[in-house]
Every structure is written in structure tokens, then in C-alpha cells.
Amino acid sequence: MPRIGVVDLGTNSTRLLVADVEDGAAVELERRTIVTRLGEGVDATGRLSDAAMGRVDEALEGFREVIDRLGAERVVAVATSAMRDAENGPAYRDHVRDRFGIEARTISGDKEASLTFRGATAGRAEGAPAVVVDIGGGSTEYVVGRPREDPGFHVSTRMGSVRHTERFLAEDPPRQEELAELRRDAARIVTEEVPAEFRDATEHGIAVAGTATTLAAIDQELDPYDPDRVHGYRLELDSCERMLAMLAALPLEERRRVTGLHPDRAPTIVAGAAILAESIRAFGLDGIEISEADILQGAALAAEDGA
Predict the structure, then answer these.
(1) Do domains 3-109 and 124-290 have the same CATH topology?
(2) What is the C-alpha R_g of the chain?
(3) What is the CATH class of 3-109?
(4) Tens digit of pLDDT for each residue in 249-284?
(5) What CA–CA distance (Å, rounded) separates 120 from 128?
(6) What pLDDT, on the 0 to 100 scale, is given for residue 307?
(7) Which end of the chain has fewer surrounding CB within 10 Å, N or C?
(8) What is the CATH number of domain 124-290?
């Protein structure tokens, strides 16, 4: 049973999974998430900032200790939207390799979508077509397919909780006009980039990553966060809309104190919730299942395959 460490250098958070992989499943030994905001300002400047790279370095220091302590035989790392978009992304990737011994691959949006679908649907029985929605800081992926099969459609969009916060939400709390403009843009992106034939054929939705798991925690008023109660939770569209309205009405400092919301996610949760609500609506669903399994598990399974 190979032991694999997976690092995800995301736009909003830096994450670690150490897992034993066997029979098509990744058995979690340890998982960590730190909000590092690597993509902060990238949409405007085209570069990773020194402060953002410093925050990721600090997270990787701790991750390296965990990887070594648990004896992972192989370490893989994926870098997504922020590293793809930043002109100094390759230089920072080299820095991560030289300082921490972690070889990060800057993967395409298509590859990101494929790995996320595999992780989110691993262990599920074959069934009706489902969409996996992965709202990241700089991109949102939509993957449509049947569990245990290669997805029939996937797309990576330039829409994310950090990117859309910086583009649309200038005031604190955001003005209704700002939020309405963000929602119109999110709805446009989903309907333009996911063909109607795939949206109409989808019978089930699975949402992964920090926005979705955070909203599930807020809806259940979880303190502390409980992954067992988040994984598999069904988030209704009405509940998503209710939380969006509540969060958007609060100034940032009050938002940080909402039960179930990690304070570091407070700056971007409004945009993330709006994107999720528009995504659920665009696929004609009443709600969506929340999953703790995502690109981390998908990358671990792919590493075991030698991919």
C-alpha cells in the first residue's frame, strides 16, 4: 500500500493530503488546509506577490515536516490557476523545488478538472450523469460524467472566489449593484461555457473545495469544523441563497465571526457563494451534494497509476 503525499498550491489555499492508496481508494492519514491567498492581486498585476509567496513558504515548511514524519514514499504537487496566470509562476515553482524538495506541476485547467472528478467520484457506484463543481480562487471547473467512467465534458473557467471578489466587490459590505453584476457574470460564464446538452442531462451535482465545504459548515453552524458532517451533506439552493444574502449584508469584520466560517475565508466567501448559487441554478438543480474528496484524492490515485 503506497503512501503518497499530495500538495495543492491553489489560488486561495495551500493544502496537503497524506494517504495510503489501495484498490482505487485514497485512505486519508492527514489533511491540512491553510488559506494563503497565493493569487492575491494576480488578476490585476500578472505576478505573484512577495507577501503571498512568503505565506505559501510558511505553509510548506509545516507540510514538509508532516510528509517526512508520516514517511510518504512519493510526493506530488499540483499548481493551478494562480501559477498558470502569473509570469513569475515558473520561478516560484523552481523555488519550491529547491527549498522544500517538492516538484510542483503547473497543470492545465483540463487536467485540474479531470483529477477533481476522479477524486470526487472515487468509490461511487455507476449512476446517472453528475456534474462536479470545483470553485477555486482563480478558476471554477465543471466536469460532467458518470462515476467510474471518463468524464464526457469538462471546462475550466476564468471565474473564482478571489478573482471575482477583486473584479466586482469593491465596497465593504458589497453594494447590491456590485453583487448583482457579479451574479450576472457568473451566470453568463456557466451558460456560455457549459453547453445546454450537458447541463440538461445532469441529474446530480457534487461541489468540492473550500467555498462548498464552508457553506455546508455555516448551514449546520459547525464549531469546530467537522469533516464527517460536511462530507455528503446536501446543500439546498434556498439555503445557499439565504446564506449569500446574510454574508453579503455583513461588513468583513462581522463576517469573520460567522459560525462555521473560517475567518481567513471571510474576504472571498460572498463571491464564492454567488458562484455556487448560479452554478446550481444553471444546471437546473434544487441543491448539491458537498464532498470532502477532490483534486487531492484524484492526484493521489493518479500518482499510484504512474500518471
Answers:
(1) yes
(2) 18
(3) alpha beta
(4) 999 999 999 999 999 999 999 999 999 999 999 999
(5) 15
(6) 53
(7) N
(8) 3.30.420.150
Q: How far apart, in Å, are the Cα atoms of 55 and each of 11, 78, 91, 125?
A: 12, 17, 16, 40
Task: Give the pLDDT band of residue 78 (cuts 50, 70, 90).
Answer: very high
Do 276 and 207 contact (CB within 8 A), yes or no? yes
Categorize the per-residue pLDDT at 107 as very low, low, confident or very high, splitting at 50, 70 and 90. confident
Scanning the chain, the segments in alpha helix (DSSP H) are: 42-45, 50-70, 81-85, 89-100, 109-121, 161-168, 176-193, 196-201, 209-220, 227-230, 237-248, 252-255, 269-282, 295-305
Cβ neighbours of residue 305 under 8 Å, at least 6 residues apart?
Answer: none
* Mean per-residue pLDDT, 29-42: 93
Pairing of the two strands 3-9 and 74-79: parallel
3-class secondary structure, 29: strand
pTM of the model: 0.84
Dist. CA 258–CA 59, nearest whole Å? 25
